[in-house]
Amino acid sequence: MGVSMRKFASTALLAIALVMGGTTTSSAVSGATTQAEDPIVTPLHDVVCSISIDPPSMITGSAVGAYGRVRCNASPDVAITSIQLQIYRNGKWSNFGTGVDQATTQPNFGFSDTAGAAAGCFYYRAQMVREAFHGTWDTSSATSGEQRLCS
Hints:
mainly beta, 6-stranded antiparallel β-sheet, 4-stranded antiparallel β-sheet, 1 helix, 12% helix, elongated
């Protein structure tokens, strides 16, 4: 996840914490300060999400891409989802291209990552990660199947 997405998530979480946190009040007459009781927040339901990713494919003669989907039973309060192509070279998997981040709370959506294909034949895969907040933070992730593609 990119730095800007982490900053967005931190800012959103801070805003939620401030709205849900306790407040301090003071009495002008007595000069006393009292602490209001923190509210107990219980989510009405759990948000359960699943991720699926198609194996990468050649989307043109010179570009590779992978499409992933998120399906949830409800919308989280804050969510960040990333998809990243990977290539197997020199005996290891490494990120390929720039990856794509989506900051959406939609319960059902899909998006893709594409990049110019490397010259020759290589194995590709994609990874997708969703970090979401609905009462607590949760992370879900999935990795697509590997696909040998030639350009």
